[in-house]
Amino acid sequence: MTYTPAAERYDRMVYRRCANSGLKLPVVSFGLWHNFGEKTPHNIKRDMCRTAFDHGITHFDLANNYGPPAGSAEEAFGEILSNDFRGYRDELIISSKAGYDMWAGPYGEWGSRKYMIASCDQSLKRLGLRYVDIFYSHRFDPDTPLEETMGALDYIVRSGRALYIGISSYNSERTREAVAILKDLGTPCLIHQPSYNMLNRWIERDGLKDTLKDLGVGSIAFTPLAQGLLSNRYLFGIPDGSRATKDSSLDANVITNEMVAALQGLNTIAQSRGQTLAQMAISWVLRDSGITTALIGASNPAQIVDCAGAAQNLEFTTSELTEIDKFANDKDLNLWANSSEGV
Ligand SMILES: NC(=O)c1ccc[n+]([C@@H]2O[C@H](COP(=O)([O-])OP(=O)(O)OC[C@H]3O[C@@H](n4cnc5c(N)ncnc54)[C@H](OP(=O)(O)O)[C@@H]3O)[C@@H](O)[C@H]2O)c1
Questions:
Q1: Residue 114 Cα, ligand 1 centroid: separation in angstroms?
Q2: Residue nearest (by alpha carbon) to ligand 1 atom 45
Q3: Planar angle of CA 42, 45, 47, nearest 5 degrees
Q4: Which are the contacts of 236, defined by CB distance < 8 A and separation ≥ 6?
Q5: Could you tell which of 299, 305, 339, 341 is best to mutate to test the pocket of ligand 1, judged by most ligand atoms within 8 Å of the CB?
Q6: Distance 246 CA to ligand 1 centre (A)
């Protein structure tokens, strides 16, 4: 059946300007890292994307390597774009990235001009798009001059392959260098994509959060739910079918009795705010204007509806924040296995 988006979709979401740019993003964005590979039936992927859009989530985040196999998430989203979202391209912000291992040989990963531009072309083909809205350097490459990687991003915009540029997981120092190079080239850095949640506050420790404010660059916080830990998923241990049982990116060993007790404490605070734990975790990331949007993932449409509801309550009292810090602080857990944080 032909899909018609919910008429009230824009009343259900809050939009924030991405720092000093002209672009507004929904405070909740949807990422296709997990559950968009070949193993997940297409109707589940399609229903998640439809539900997201119905709730005003206009931003869909991809990368060349999302799947598995790598590339299959972009192919699945390309199909959704041409069937379900046909006619709505101008209401969508679609991003992709290059940086991680994508194809064999010396040109299939990191940050060379050769890899970045070829990978962008491959992504556009899989997505069936003429351009993406945002294209990222997925990780800092210590062996390629930053001028080369940023030059490739600048070219990607100038050649019409992307409208805006972003960087992901670059630390504060590298971010300053990258932003300065891009400014000189005349293609400003729109956005930074770091991991950030109540259990992983490296962007505060590193100074990145303040750096982005200082530089006028927006930010999209990935894994705001710590891959599902900060939700009702693990309140009583590890349930069947959860990410901790399926995927090596979330190590089940971090879900100790102590962690479960902390999650229960956080859940009580969330309830007193009239939120689910997932909603409170998203609101916490967005508690000041330093973060433009929280980039969630999901395994079913109901989770997306729940997460989108976070937009209704983004304010915290000082005592709520103090209470949260008693249960959740920067635990320095390896919750995002491939993080290039701090490089
Ligand atoms: N730039 C980078 O290097 C990088 C790295 C990682 C991720 N990302 C981006 O960030 C996106 C989000 O990452 P993520 O999926 O790890 O984010 P997340 O939102 O922290 O975790 C998503 C998981 O949480 C659970 N969940 C979501 N909503 C829920 C709810 N309302 N109630 C209960 N459980 C809920 C689901 O787990 P179950 O599957 O157990 O149901 C879901 O798969 C990715 O898709 C990608 O776009 C970027």
A1: 31
A2: 31
A3: 105
A4: 260
A5: 299
A6: 13
Query: How does pLDDT run across 180-214, given as a tens digit for each residue?
Result: 999 999 999 999 999 999 999 999 999 999 999 99
Q: Is the pTM of this model over 0.90?
A: yes
CA of 300, closest atom in ligand 1: 41
Atom of ligand 1 nearest to the CA of 306: 31
Question: What average pLDDT does this structure show over 10-33?
Answer: 98
Yes or no: say if 195 and 202 are a contact pair by the CB < 8 Å rule.
yes
Domain positions in the chain: 9-327
CA–centroid distance, residue 142 to ligand 1 (Å): 27
Q: Which residues line ligand 1 (CB under 6 A)?
A: 31-34, 61, 138, 168-169, 193, 222-228, 231-233, 242-243, 278, 295-299, 303, 306-307, 336
CA distances from 20 to 46, 51, 164, 189, 191 (A): 33, 30, 13, 10, 10
What is the per-residue pLDDT across 266-295, written as a single tens digit (0 to 9) for each? Answer: 999 999 999 999 999 999 999 998 999 999
Identify the CATH assignment for 9-327 out of 3.20.20.100, 1.10.510.10, 3.40.430.10, 3.30.2350.20: 3.20.20.100
